Amino acid sequence: xxITVSYAxxxxxxxxxxxxxxxxxxxxxxxxxxxxxxxxxxxxxxxxEKIGIPKVLSVCETEVTRxxxxxxxxxxxxxxxxxxxxxxxxxxxxxxxxxxHLLVEFLRRTLQ
Length: 112
Prior knowledge:
single chain; two-stranded antiparallel ribbon
């Protein structure tokens, strides 16, 4: 599954493509049934696609936004954000602008 990341209104947004989802292994705790029939596999696949993935992306959006805010990104205007996957980690690359009202306040205090 590919995930597209965007940043607007000081929040991270994650969008997934709806590629095919495969159920590799699923078990029920019932002793009467050792394997799942096709209808049950279809149900699990649909649940993962319609409930599981959107829920995980929603939690990730919130947590990545929180992490960026802890680093102070909410103070800046972000332009052209990019997420670059690397081997074992992710690089977030972005351009930013210093907010006008903070610059004016800084200059006012510095020049006094």
